[in-house]
Amino acid sequence: MLGSVVQVHLSPPTSSVLSIRYLSRGIITALLLTAWFCGSGTAIAQLRAIPDEATRGQLRYVGQTIVELDGVRAQLSPGAQIRTPDNRILVPNALPQDTLLVKYLVDAAGMVHRVWILTQDEAAKPDKKQR
Q1: Pairing of strands 72-83, 112-117
Q2: The whole model's pTM is what?
């Protein structure tokens, strides 16, 4: 009768030097990525494209999903996006009470669907002629 043989393979102990090397490499990578994202924020903001068909107007937040565009009350559509001058999405209740110069698009139901708060440079540019 043959006896059973059990083989146990033990992995060599990991070196703490290797662990520190990989940990420091990860930290350096994270720091570099963070610096790159922070530094590219202004470059990303410059790439925003406001459609030519967007209408220029004065926007004032009234409450909940109601805004005033050029003094006329309008409803924000479900999923409406409001973009800040640096192209970040802003929730409606975070809008300041001041009147803002914007460009906006409305959806098929006549609700305000996209809003871009203009930078000073964008506000100074004339609107493109619509065909």
Answers
A1: parallel
A2: 0.64
